[in-house]
Each structure stands twice: as structure tokens, then as C-alpha cells.
Amino acid sequence: MSSVLYTPPQGHDCGSLTHIETNDVLTRTYRRFIRESALLRAFPNYNVQYGMGAFFQRRMHPFRLIKKGATCVQVGCTEWMLEFGVSQPLLMAGLAGDSGRVIAVDPDDRNKKAVLSYLSRHGVRHVEFVQDALFDEVKEAEFTFYHDRTSSNVITEVADVSIWNSSHVDRPKFTKKIMLNTLDRVCVDRGITPDFVNISINDAEFGVIKGMDEILEKRKTVVAWLIGCGRSWWAASLDHFLKRNYNVIVGNAPYSRRGPSKNGKVSFLKPDEVYQEYYAVAVPKEMHLPHHSEFRVESLEVTEQSLDFIVCKAT
Known about the structure:
Rossmann fold; 11 helices; alpha/beta; about 25% helix; four-stranded mixed β-sheet
């Protein structure tokens, strides 16, 4: 069984790598029994799921770093998460509050329609939707759209080299050429420097990060992205920030327990079936206020078979 061992760069001009654990009894109870309860799914309510839910999210990695009044950008937004209580732009909206601003970026017409409908029905006015696909540069590229679940949508060139691509071969989908944009351009167009950016787009996260150099140079933005589930570039993405004197915090993500639909009905994974979704969060070193559960990391190791991270604590 092969593995990848990563040791963070050292030096005065490098940030530090730390691990955080926010999966306490309260957040586990919330995730398993409250957030995705059948009652809330049957009667979805923004104020309950995302407004009151912000109390729990403030205890969880990575959204705990969103402050009231913050300007946030979510890259990737899928329709099924809205009424499940796990939609990232709505989590941000609940944490930032009415004085904040949230921009959700996604290329899919179905996601746009679902998000705008939800915002209208629930009277949420501080979230906007930008229909765009982001990557490392402005260019035309082929994009794959899945009929059954938009959360699997992906830039085709990324999918072709992803570890999970073979599992999607028989699923109904279509491809078309679209223009890719960069996060730098989206933010310039809207005249913002975001306080918080979250990127969750099926193995293309590092590409989006490479397209936000202007934002990172301002050193005002916290950036969160997924690095688990076999993403081959995970170590390079850590280096990208650490060598820019950003501190990086890694830890398990508060992801949904929703599994594949069976006969048209929603299924849930058991707690021991939920695979590890590892999040990294980059914070400019001068802005980082360590959490009480953080500790310095000497190395990270990923075993090919499990895809889970093994953390070695610095002595």
C-alpha cells in the first residue's frame, strides 16, 4: 500500500501548519440528529436551519471563522443542499447576518434557478448568485453537467484525471464548451475584497486558488478548500499558502451524511460509513488567532487505500 508523506516548509517567511478538532459532543449531536432531521427537510426554514444553525456552525471548522458583517464568496453551489440545511452560501449567510454579503458562484442553470427561488421564498436578501465557472485562467473549456445530481458537475479536463472519475462512467450527463473565469475577475467586477472564500468544486479547488493571486496579495482574505478524497494536488495547495506566509489550519469538515438516492428516496450513511472530508483553511499569519484545540503539525500522511489523513503532531 503506497502513501504520500508531506512535511510543511520551514523558515521565517513561511506560515505554520496546524490541525484543529471541532467535532465535540454538541456539534456531533447537531450534525447527526438536528441538522438533517426529517422534520426540517419536510418543513425547510431559513431562519431555523441557517439562522439558528449559526450557533453550531460557529463551533465548526471551517465556517467558524466567518464574522458578522463579512463579505463571503462560495465557489460551487448545488441545489439539493438548500433544504437539507447544508448549503454553503446559506451557512455563510446565517453567520454573516443581514449586514453581510454572500456571493455564490456556479455555472449550472438548475442551481441558479433553485438558489434564486429559495432566496425569494425565504426573503433572504444578502445573498446573490453569479453564473460562472471558475478556474486558474480565463479560457474556453469543456464542462461536464450531470443530470441526476449537480453536485458532481466538473471541468472535464479535471474529471479525466480524478481518482473518482471511473465511478461516474454510467451516470447520465452531457458536456458543452463554456468560458472559465477567475475569482480575481469576479471580485474586481463586483468591487469587493472578500473576507472569506470557500471552494468546493470536485477536484478543481486548486485551480481556483491559482486564479486569485490579486486577492491573496492584499492579505485580507481567509480561504477554505477541500483537500481530501484523493485530490492529487493537496500537498501543492498547502505549499501555495505556507510559502506566502499564510498559516494553514487543517481538520475534518462538517459534511452532510446524505448518501445516494435509492428508488427516489434519500438515503443516509451511517456515522462509520462517512468518508473523511478534510478541509484546509489559509489565514494571513498576522490575522490568525489560534483555536484552543489547534496544535502544530510535523507531517501529514495519506494512505492510498483509505484516502484518510494521518497527522503527526510536532514535538
